DNA sequence: CTAAAACCTGACATTGATGTCAGAGGCAAG
DNA sequence: CTTGCCTCTGACATCAATGTCAGGTTTTAG
């Protein structure tokens, strides 16, 4: 498929796809005239990339991990495994923090609701 | 306390504290000579702001929610409550996504480890 | 064949939070 | 009083991901 279709199917802009390639996160075969062509597999790959972005990884970090996805053997494995474990921890910590923040929001909302009700009560008297 | 101390205690740069004030997230009383002064309460507030930033809220969004924290009564409550619920949902979704990403990373790591072991095995033969 | 739509490269713009610098003033200790 | 550190404002720089535009080529549909 060409870049437009990949963009449509992944909800990622054409611009971004080209940027991913520039950053070494994505590869494409080129037609004789130079147009990028992708296979089905790239759809999943782009979604995975998006997911890592959403997890707060930079493209540099993603670029370090993806080779490990492509060829899960090789000498890279050792350092890459370390790297992944590290990012995994960062992610876990981040998740914990978000959960705590959500809890804080819940308390805030409960307080606000309580105030609203006490106001309604005051008004009804 | 002055801005330097607040910065030190919250691990937020002086520059950022001034930025928060500019964005309406933080207020300070000024001394006669124009220097900012803060109370103990601001320490917690800055930490909370950082927390919301980490949760992916923009300063604009934070600015919408904080009034509701300061005066949890008033007419703002109604719209603000809606806003908070909305952000709360966004946050929950985000957390879910991160958890799924972490799971994907775990699978990747397991695969890499398996490969490493099978290689070690091959070498030992 | 022709026009519209999609693609190419390369460049510049944008956004948000933050860094950094310059020039000036404030404040505490020696 | 002076020296050193902190603070002030205002401006410009940065970074990463993405948007946007221009000028040119390719592909597709009629």
UniProtKB/TrEMBL annotation, chains A, B:
Record flagged with keyword tRNA-binding: no
Highest taxon in the source lineage: Bacteria
Keywords, comma-separated and alphabetical: Coiled coil, DNA-binding
A GO term, aspect molecular function: DNA binding
Domain HTH merR-type: 1-68
Alphabetical list of Pfam families matching this protein: MerR_1
Membrane spanning stretches: none
Gene3D superfamilies: 1.10.1660.10
Record InterPro entries: DNA-bd_dom_put_sf, MerR-type_HTH_dom, MerR_fam
Keyword Aminoacyl-tRNA synthetase: no
Ranges in a coiled coil: 77-104
Protein name as annotated: MerR family transcriptional regulator
Natural source organism: Streptomyces diastatochromogenes
